[in-house]
Specification:
Rv3654c-like; 3 helices; rod-shaped; transmembrane helix; transmembrane; alpha+beta; membrane; 3 strands; Helicase; about 55% helix
């Protein structure tokens, strides 16, 4: 056995360990990136659902429907946009405020089922 063979014998297989470690880090980063992308998509769905639901309810109020009917319409519009209406209030100035949530598709283990939440207001401009 030469001196060169004796020196390299202790490092035998270290490339495999390094490749496995790099693959593990890459997998963790991929899952974290997918979870973040899922959360961003859920936030967009919640915002769109709340915005459109508030607009639908404000349109109903402006056309003379009552608050219950307007909020019912808002709930159906939110559901059609993959969101769930949480609150709906019609103010004295006929402005409608709607809060909606949307589930995050890929949550991280141990966090339960996270939900993105958004609030929107539609109606006449607030008086100063």
């Amino acid at each position: 056995m030469t001196t060169e063979q004796q020196r390299s014998g202790g490092e035998r297989g270290s490339g495999t360990v390094l490749a496995l470690a790099a693959s593990g880090v890459l997998a963790v980063l991929l899952v974290a990136g997918l979870a973040l992308a899922s959360a961003v998509a859920a936030a967009h769905r919640a915002r769109a659902g709340a915005d459109l639901a508030a607009l639908a309810a404000a349109t109903s109020v402006q056309s003379g429907e009552g608050a219950a009917s307007a909020c019912s319409r808002a709930a159906s519009v939110a559901a059609a946009n993959a969101a769930r209406q949480v609150t709906c209030t019609v103010g004295a100035d006929s402005a409608v405020t709607v809060s909606a949530t949307s589930p995050v598709g890929l949550g991280l283990p141990g966090l339960g089922q996270p939900r993105a939440r958004a609030t929107a207001r539609a109606g006449p401009a607030p008086s100063l």
